[in-house]
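Supplementary material to the annual report.
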Amino acid sequence: MLFNSYEFILLFVPAVVAVYYALGPAHRQAALSWLIVASLFFYAWWRPFNVLLIAPSIGVNYAVVRLLLRVDDRRPKLSAAAFVAGIAFNLAFLGYFKYRNFFLTVSNDVLDTSFALDALILPLGISFITFQKIALLVDVRAGLVTKVRLRDYALFVLFFPPLIAGPIVHYRELMPQFAVLDGRWRSEDFAVGLTLFFTGLFKKVVFADPIAALINPTWAAVAVGGHPALLQAWAAALGYMLQLYFDFSGYSDMAIGAARLFGVKLPFNFNSPLKATNIIDFWSRWHITLTRFLTFYIFSPMTIALTRRRAAQRLPVVAGRTTTLTAFLVLLAWPTMVTMVLAGVWHGAGYQFLVFGALHGVALVVNHAWRLRRPRWWPSVGTSGLIAELGCWALTFLFVVVAEVFFRATSLGAAFALLQGMTGANGVTLPMALIPHAAPLLEWMGLHAPGVWESGSEFVQVWGWIAAGLIVVLGMPNILEILADHDPALGFKVRPAGRTRLLRAVTWSPAPSWAGLSLVTVLGLLSLGRLSDFLYWHF
Amino acid sequence: MSTSVDPAAVAFQRAAETATVRSRRFCMVWFAAVLTLGTQVGAFNAVVDPYLVTGAPRIAGFNAIKPETGTHTGLAKRYLFARLRPAGLVLGDSKADIGIDPGSPNWPEDARPGFNYGVPAIGLPVALDILRHAIVSGPITRALVLIDIEEFMKPADATAPTAEPATETPSAAADFRQHVQDLLLATLSLDALRASVMTVAAQGRHDVVDLSPAGVTSEGGFRAVSAREGYGLMFQQKDEYLARMMAWLAAALRARPGAPINELDAVADMIRLCRDRGIALDLAIAPSHADYLDAIDRAGLWPRYRDAKKQLTLLIAAEGGDAVRLWDFLGYDGYSTEPVPPVSDRAGTMHWYWEPSHFKQALGEKILATIYQGGNEFGVRLTPDMIASHLERESNERTSYRARSEPLAHSSR
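Predicted assembly:
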């Protein structure tokens, strides 16, 4: 069931909320069980077979968790074996459904084998669900989680708001909240939840979907060998960047808002990422729960293990400005590349996702090197001040847009075709009315004589939406900042320095005037007719 | 005995209570506002009824003209059809949609009321589906299907599965779901709101699209473009498009030499369905301006064109016998060779065509007169006995037409 569907918004959520609060404090256990039943219904709605596919995985993981809790430190070998088996099972499960065809393709391409590629049914939300289960196994093994009951486990895995596409949540974040949930209605939770949910819906149906409709023809054309002209290619790349942001951050807002209707706070996933002034900053603002998962479970363990090994061998380790090149390469660059390549292929099974991850890995390595070496090699080059910050932002933004081309393209060839268009190699097309005005400028820039962008109104729409989207993402506070006084998400705080005059002017409060958001709600609801799924539901 | 009260705790308690009250009020105001706004939008859309889904009365000066049906033709016709319960049907693409009026005096009495279920850009398989769904609603006595010859000239996809068996009785649940979805789209949607505003704003204008209760799309849209740009430019633009399209078709055929004629299965299915249901079926090859034939000829597709007509004739005779008639209105005649005003002459007009592919309702009347009133002014019935001589005559006419006129697409008309 899509979050942006009539059945979810007008039937499912009202029904789940009504029954949950009707059971209330007097039947707290039943209310929590009701959430599990409703979540199973939600998961099965799309394809009931999904439940059968995912159920064995949930069962095996629960069994491993119970075993890990029972054997504890007294039987380390059994504990380690159970842990490794659990992780291997999850990776095999994910690998079979998501990467089987990719590995067979690689084998066919590289080893000249001829494996047949079968269409597999990908269980909905498999990547997110698997990550959460792996995280729980690691937390149990590390002693961060000491007690797991079956109903709690089912709630953790199935709770519907973050089930399909996150935010990726830890057991230790969710369970303490469920432990104190009393089924009592709290108006503030509801007010914040509604505001978040419908702002997210607005982002999805009023921004992401119309932008997608305008740029999809260009992406479809490059997928079948088209060569877009300069402005078409840039519109497709910039438009997709905005579509992805509005779509996924909108989805995350809706998930956080839906959970809040039950008094549960989820971790935040986006914090104005397109305002980032370097790529490290970008990843601390974009898909934040994925970043912290990758950092906590892949990057940090690798770095710690490698550092310990080098320290034992009395080799230099990372030490600020005095870090040696070898230490940097082994302890920072290598783990970063591994982590980001894995992040890339986590998003999808294809060469283009691998390139996407590798590009971000290289960018992060360069960013780390810059941070370590700049003060020593170029002490006079500053990164503060308006001009420097604008330059840093522009560089970061440009890189992110280019990398997203690989993320969106259906193949590497399609990605390169679009990038070629972005360089101007395929010429420029403009609406007839603009050609006389722009031709001299384009000639001066060394670009081919402009061709005709056939529909002038389409040109205006595409670039109008892109301009409007950029104004919103770059010029406005995000919805979590606007709601910051009311703990919109787990751990979200606005630093005092971040409380700009604009933010103070638009800070939310449960005043009747803010109920003007009902206009946003109605606009979102009225746009539901153009049904489209969320991009991250495919990952 | 007195109890000491912590003032800070009291203040905290009061603040919490105030926040709760404010939040509760916020929720109530929000809910009331959403309900009010949503109801108002839904009611406005339902009354204006831009897509003809709710069936609200058409009030002159308010919502009588329905310009938005031009982009939602299929949706609007589904509901017009259900309300009219016609005995006769016109099927086809935009040519049928705009060109044939089943309310005409030339439409047969035994098929009244007639309904035009032509929908832009659909092929024969979709028209067949429409017919399947239509006969569930009530008895249909006659159907006239306008066919586009270029659809048959395309290479049939050898890998495509054969046509699905007729789903003659769509489930009640599916129908209900579709109806709810249409109703939501037509009332509680931003698109509908925009369409309603545009509908109200368009009243009193004659240069906009409208849809009659008999399902005929008005010629207002074409009238507006021809007044703005002139017939010469409309022909020039369509000629350029046709040249590209025919070049693409020629390339597709070169890639698959000997590919069978397209959509013949759908024709056979339609004939069987009509025979089983006792529906009198007429198929008519839609007329086009000579520029259209010129585009076919210049792309080297004349043999394919002849083959398509011939195979259609043979198939229909084999499957339908005398009960199903095939008519040919596409060729060189006094209508299709009507001179086109030059691009510079925006005021110049034409009687029979809007552009090379779309004929006017005036010519549609001639089609109906030929098929149902025994007229012999325009078009001819194709039968296996005469198809060879007919095609030969057409080829000769092509030669003599080319000898006396410079084709438009490449001239400075």
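Residues 7-48 of chain B form the longest helix (42 residues).
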